[in-house]
Please model this.
Amino acid sequence: MDLMNSVELGGDEPAAIEAGSAASPYATGGGGVTFERKVAVQYLAHLLAGDGAAELGDGRHVVSVAFQQAPESPVDDLVIAAAFPDESEPSLLLSLGVRRSPNLVQSDPPTRKLIRDYVSALINAPQDGPQRRLGLVVAGPQLHAEQLGTLADLGAAQMDAPEFFNLVETPNRFDAGIRGRLGQFEGLVSRALRDLGVAEPSTALIRQRTWELLSKLTVLMPRLESPDETDWAAVANNLVAVAKTSDLEAATRLRDLLFFLASEYSPKGARIDLNILRRDAHEVLDPKTGRHQQGWQVLGHLHDRAVNSVRDEIVASDGRRRLRIDRSRIAAELTAICSESTAVVVSEESGVGKSVLTLRSLAAAVDDAPELMQVQCINLRHLHQLTVEFESTLGCPLPTLLSEFSAPQRMLVIDGADAVAEGMENAFRYLIDAAGESGMKVIAVTAVDNVQVVRDVLKDRLGTEIAEYSVPSLDDSEVREIVGNFSELEHVYSNPRSRELLRRLVVVDLLVRGDVAEVPLSDADAMEEIWSGLVRKRESTDRGHPDAREFALLRLADLELTGGDRLSVISGLDAAGLTGLRQDGLLQTSEENRFMIGPDFAHDEIRRYAVARLLLSGNDPTAKLLDAGVPRWALAAARLASLTLLEQPDGPHTPLQGRLGKLQASFDALVEAGHGARWADVPGEAL
Model:
């Protein structure tokens, strides 16, 4: 469809109205409708591009474009709000009257009404708030408009009305056309004052209002229509940087869409800011362009890091055999729930693949329909703990950035939401508040132990119902597909009890990479097998000594649990062991914080194993917890440690008799010490 031809053209001049009467938006539209829409497109383009125009003052950019603002603004065709970069509110309001070819003489009724509107706007302008200026826009260079523009420039350069009139009336200083135009304009102002209720305005008052109006007036003569469309072509050139494919053809499509949108906005008396315009023009915009480029670069880095840090492949230890399980049906279910809900908590136990499913499926949905959906992924653990530091890195408030997302479906995916239990609750609240303020959905991914706290924070901040989605573990057909590709798992699959371990994607990947040898029957057995095969490398020394590798993970687990000086801990670790653990994908170096000392765990499941083994280093797994202040995030590791302890064979150092009772008593003591009733459930859950 030709958007330009789809708009019905209107008359060139408005009907005259009685002084002081109000009219509906659109009915008071001035000159030719097509020309008025093209003028609007100029300012909408400035709004998208983040720049300004000479009439707004050096350095100001367009903040909003308002259409047909009567009766609020007597000069109502367009009202442009503009601000300097460091201003949070507009410092200028420019009210524009748009007329294709006005006849600026006293005898012309439409011109009398036009000038009456200008005088009314001048008299009734608020004394506080932003600076207010007036503009007259005509279609290309015209003699009357050029003369009026000269008078406006002269008026702005004089201190008062007498100086202005003395200057213009000085013999031979200006040509007769300029002096004559001033006489006509003075007469129009005199008529306007009478129409507005001033019975017999004095010459001094008429001249004062004439000078005031001229000193606040800007006359614009854009070349937007045939035969000279120079400025209309310039609009398209200005839009290249924000158009979808960053070329002139795409920019022309965007310009024509803006023309169509202007025809929609005008009869509604709409006030359009950048957020509204980006959403209305989303299909033809480059979604990666925004006014705050520093912040967009940071968000892009966080998104890529979050998505790339999740594994969706099972890879053999030799790196040659790879398998990606098709979970498209589950992904479609999750995407549908996210599309239909304001906020969603995605959960299940560690290792089922909830993060990779959520992040990759929603990213794929964006690739399939970028005109419908935008997704920003952030791992909560990748953020600064202090939100002021995060905002400083962005260079602007996060809600400002998120408001520049423009697709109909806009989602903020927060992976690692478990970190609310690790001192990141303020950062989590900050993300939720920013999403709510900017109209984005929130998708929080968390392990099952922290579902309630994540859900409660979401509900408290958003004040809406929270949907939940539990990611299913791998089904029988998916497990069979895995075993068919990795024959080393056949002996695990053949045992009905151990087969259940293969339903967790991360556990499968770790077992395969560790060259599984035994038949693990429980979560504790799987940890032991992975620790032996992948951490200690079956006692191989090609990637660091086994003891050095093990001690490194345990020291990092202790650092996570109890805190301490990171430099002193990391500097004492074996360098070859750390390098080998990185190469084997058990540790990773932070890309976000290049000043962070040393590596971190590559997956929560690896951290869970390391913390569980650390808790088992003493006779009582709760002893280390107490030393660390009993952090809630360690629940899963404590449960795994308890299971391991309960499964130990009977012996002099680990007597079976009374083992469960003793373990239960130690966790009950945590409850009695005020650390929460949840801890009392750990031994029973381990069983």
User: Anything to note?
Assistant: The chain has four domains: 1-14+23-101+222-286, 105-111+143-220, 293-470, 546-686. Residues 546-686 form one domain. The radius of gyration is 35 Å. Residues 1-31 have pLDDT under 50 and may be disordered.
